[in-house]
Design goal:
The structure is a single chain. The chain is globular. Mean pLDDT is about 90; it is low at about 5-20. It has 25 helices and 20 strands. The chain folds into 4 domains: about 5-225, Nucleotidyltransferase, domain 5 (2-Layer Sandwich), CATH 3.30.420; about 245-370, Up-down Bundle (Taq DNA Polymerase, Chain T, domain 4); about 415-425 and about 560-680, Alpha-Beta Complex (Palm domain of DNA polymerase); about 440-520, no CATH class. Helices cover about 45% and strands about 15% of the residues. Helix 9 packs antiparallel against helix 12, helix 17 (about 430-435) crosses helix 24 and helix 19 (about 450-460) crosses helix 22 (about 505-520). The strands form 5 sheets. A 6-stranded antiparallel beta sheet has the order 12-13-14-15-16-17, with helices on one face. Strands 3-2-1-4-5 form a 5-stranded mixed beta sheet, with helices on both faces. The protein is α+β, with helices and mostly antiparallel strands and about 675 residues long.
Length: about 675
């Protein structure tokens, strides 16, 4: 019998009458949309005209898992529908944002959404279910230092019931469009009746996902997430729901200009090299070799180095290669894919994306790694791109790819009648490190509003240093030392930070390390106090405390409790031996290969985690302080607020710069500016 998957849309849902008696509802859904979820995000995904929910798996108050086969005409019980819109019922899901946004669209379509907005009319928060009654098992897992996938968490925790491996194949079959072929009768979508056995397996898969999600809750029950972290998550969801306006005229014109620029640059390279494909790394390496220049890599750094010594005729080719490498079209294309029907991009921030510190990660457009802008006439360049004046842009700026790259930030704009207020913390990590370690001279510099790079150089070399003044040449050494050495870095860290490219010699590096450590003895002491406390916790299961930071070992986990009350988690810690033959702590986590593996750590690296995590908590405090404002973006230590013309910049920065009650004595400062498009001031 055919399922009649299309019929459900004809029948509005009747909300259940009377109170909802359940306390929790665990959910997993399977959906269909012709929009690519991975490239466009869930907000754009649910805007597709063909979006629908196929299966609704749920468990009320930990009871048996039920699956509602919506694709085959079954209906969700009225009491479950009522629970979805009842703030007294806690909804659980793994990656709950997906379920919440999908169900918001589905309820709107079926007449079951009785609280259309959870924000004020002036806000641009979309028509979504209020996140305040939702909790996410993925966030709980991240808080515990576990993987961010249901399969990964299940494996690490050794759950009795694991996620079914055939899920990816079934999702591809039922949840995504298919290519029309003779074999499938030319259809572009697979329906339940096309593969009844697969559909039965898909329902089992849906049930199992709910069971695994509930098992995670049960397994982690003795390690609850603090309520303040859930409040931060709800605020994060509100910011994601609000989104930010994109200047789509700028985006479209930038993509068109990038395409033209690449064609022109490629044609110029073909003319100079006579290569079929000058963009080919292999062909270009061979051409350079044939012309007397042996190269191992054509990376940006390597090309920049070659340009210093290459003959003039080769420089032309290398410069063209360099310009092509700056192509910025991917960011603009991501904006095109992500933009919602109202012109705003949503879902760009992953709460607890970095599970060792709890910092955010970027999604879709990747806000955390936007190119910087240094053009003095940014508005003029932006205007040329918006009106499609390629010739004018090329004439005035020469390097079109670089100019387009610098304009990426400016694609984010406030809604009509509003302005952006951008406010960020001044040297937040350096301030937190000095506060923890009790490095008094550094704290005094911050309190007096001094330049930490000048002060550091002065402390290191025992002479006065002023920016653009007396001994000003030493400021650069102070800067590179500050950036590279705060977390135990040595000569290698200086090199990685570009010390040699900045003019320092090999012979200067070790004295620079020594000078910095001698002038920051309290910080060095802090590294090894932290190392000792962590080692004692793992080795002897001994609780410890350093500068208000608490260490304990519990149930196969190392926990570091920050002054904010939030805990950092290190999974299955034990003692190991590092590359230098010294004893160190190892633990399990996501490594550089993006795989779950055993990692090693030691005092300075733990300090880096602690400082970055504490800086993150300070940003969260500021976000809570300013939650009455329309926060649209946050990048590292910076907030971007969509504000009406009357909002005072100074007042907002003062609010952001308030010291949290748990950070007594920490000197904070927030600076900011107003703008009609986002930029790096």
């Amino acid at each position: 019998m055919a399922c009649g998957w299309w019929e459900q849309s004809c029948h509005p849902i009747r909300l259940g009458k009377g109170p909802v008696y359940m306390k929790t509802l665990s959910i997993d859904i399977e959906t269909y949309s012709s929009v690519d979820l991975a490239k466009c995000g869930v907000y754009k995904y649910t805007e597709a005209t063909d979006f629908d929910i196929l299966l609704f798996g749920y468990s009320a108050d930990g009871g048996p898992v039920q699956v509602v086969d919506l694709a085959c005409g079954e209906t969700i019980p009225p009491e479950i529908i009522a629970a979805l819109t009842n703030d007294d019922v806690t909804k659980w899901a793994f990656n709950a944002q997906f379920e919440r946004i999908c169900l918001s669209r589905w309820l709107r379509d079926h007449g079951g959404f009785d609280n259309a907005y959870y924000s004020i009319p002036e806000d641009t928060v979309g028509n979504y279910l209020d996140p305040a009654s939702w909790k996410c098992t993925m966030i709980w897992s991240a808080y515990m230092g576990l993987p961010l996938s249901l399969e990964g968490v299940g494996a690490v925790l050794g759950l009795g019931k694991q996620k079914l491996t055939e899920g990816k194949e079934l999702i591809k079959y039922f949840c995504q469009p298919c290519a029309p072929t003779k074999a499938n009768g030319g259809r572009t979508r697979n329906l339940p009746e096309n593969a009844p056995d697969k559909w039965a397996a898909f329902k089992r898969y849906n049930i199992r996902d709910v069971e695994v999600e509930m098992s995670i809750q049960e397994k982690l029950a003795k390690f609850p997430v603090p309520e303040m972290v859930w409040e931060q998550y709800h605020l994060d969801q509100e910011i994601n729901d609000r989104g930010v306006t994109l200047d789509m005229e700028l985006v479209h014109q930038a993509i068109a200009m990038d395409t033209r620029s690449r064609a022109d640059l490629t044609a110029a390279m073909k003319k100079l090299t006579a290569l079929d494909n000058p963009n080919s790394v292999q062909q270009m390496k061979q051409w350079l070799s044939d012309n007397g220049l042996e190269v191992d890599s054509l990376g940006k750094k390597e090309v920049a180095e070659m340009l210093k010594t290459a003959p003039a005729e080769l420089q032309k080719v290398l410069l063209l290669r360099q310009q092509l490498a700056k192509s910025s079209v991917k960011k603009y294309q991501a904006m095109e894919k992500a933009v919602c029907a109202d012109g705003r991009a949503r879902g760009m921030f992953q709460f607890y994306g970095a599970n060792r510190t709890g910092r955010w990660a970027g999604r879709i457009i990747q806000m955390q790694n936007l190119p910087q802008n240094h053009l003095p006439d940014l508005a003029e360049a932006r205007g040329l791109v918006r009106c499609g004046d390629f010739e004018g842009l090329e004439l005035l700026y020469e390097d079109v790819p670089d100019t387009l790259s610098q304009l990426i930030r400016t694609a984010f704009v406030p809604k009509p009648g509003y302005k952006f207020i951008v406010s960020d913390f001044s040297a937040i990590e350096a301030r937190v490190l000095a506060w923890f370690a009790g490095e008094i001279w550094r704290q005094e510099v911050f309190e007096k509003g001094g330049d930490i790079y000048c002060a550091s150089a002065s402390q290191m070399f025992k002479v006065p240093v002023e920016k653009h003044g007396v001994n000003g040449h030493l400021r650069q050494k102070g800067k590179i030392a500050e950036l590279a050495l705060g977390y135990g870095g040595s000569i290698g860290a200086l090199k990685a930070m570009g010390a040699l490219e900045m003019g320092l010699s090999e012979d200067e590096l070790q004295p620079l390390v020594t000078a910095w450590r001698n002038s920051n003895q309290n910080i060095v002491r802090f590294w090894w106090d932290i190392d000792r406390a962590a080692m004692n916790a793992v080795k002897y299961h001994m609780d410890g405390e350093v500068c208000g930071i608490k260490f304990c070992y519990q149930s196969g986990m190392l926990f570091i409790t920050l002054p904010s009350g939030r805990r950092l988690s290190y999974v299955k810690p034990k003692l190991g031996t590092n590359q230098f033959g010294s004893e160190c702590i190892t633990y399990e986590g996501i490594g550089g290969t993006k795989k779950w593996e055993r990692l090693e750590t030691y005092g300075p690296k733990l300090v880096e985690n602690i400082v970055q995590a504490t800086s993150r908590d300070i940003l969260c405090y500021a976000m809570r302080t300013l939650s009455h404002c329309f926060i649209t973006m946050h990048i590292h230590d910076e907030l971007v607020i969509e504000a009406s013309p009357g909002v005072d910049l100074k007042v907002l920065c003062e609010q952001m710069g308030r010291t949290p009650p748990w950070a007594n004595g920490l000197k904070l400062r927030a600076d900011g500016y107003e703008t009609m498009f986002y930029k790096k001031d």
